[in-house]
Amino acid sequence: MGVQLKLKWTLSLLLLLVMALVIASYQLMAVYVEQQSRAREQQRSAAMEWVLVFRTDLEQGHTVSLDDLQQRKYPPDYISEDWLRPQDAMAIVGNVTQHFVSRGEPATLSALQQARRASFSDVLQAGEYAVTATVGIDQIHHGLLAIGNRVSIVAQQFGSGSAPESQLTSIANVEIIAIDNATNEAWHQGLASTLTFRLKAAQAVAFEKIRNSGYAIWLQHPESDYPTLPEQRLIRVYTINGGDI
Hints:
Layout: H1 2-47, E1 49-54, E2 69-74, H2 89-92, E3 96-97, E4 112-113, E5 128-135, E6 150-158, E7 165-180, H3 184-188, E8 193-200, H4 201-210, E9 215-219, E10 232-235
Antiparallel strand pairs: 1-2, 3-4, 5-8, 6-7, 6-9, 7-8, 7-10
């Protein structure tokens, strides 16, 4: 009886020892596997490269800012040649998207285009022209004319040949969008400067017909639309010897 009891205890101890060894081996194996996985992940991460991706969905025509971009790592073999890198971020800020781009999509030059640079022509509406002409001190009302003023351009067109009659024509409601003078000294001396008018196509054509024949600039009230002057026939009067014909 005593021998059997000892045998049972011995077997129980051996079983516990084996179980303990199995558990310890499993834990050691799990730790080893985790260490190996971590090492492989670190090696893979070290080999991966940063690229620029879009942080959010962006519609076509969106102007890209730094807030629209973020960095993400990719395996080198997965990276396309046209993908942009973090060092390219400042170069593409201010560009606009050529089409819809989705969140997480790598940033490429083919998806972007440079925004059109702002210029003086942006003040014009579709179908309008900016027409610049040289003017004298009387036409600029001795320096009182200002950008934003509206004027009527009035000209006298003479008949052809020996006809004595002429017509007074006008182009009304013309906005002054620029005034250019080379120097302040030239301005104060009353030398010629330039005015730039905002004109519709028909007005621009009409102005070119009178540009070289001399014209006056009549200042208008800023909040009123003026009608085009009705054509007025003028009679040219000649005098000889102080009025004695």
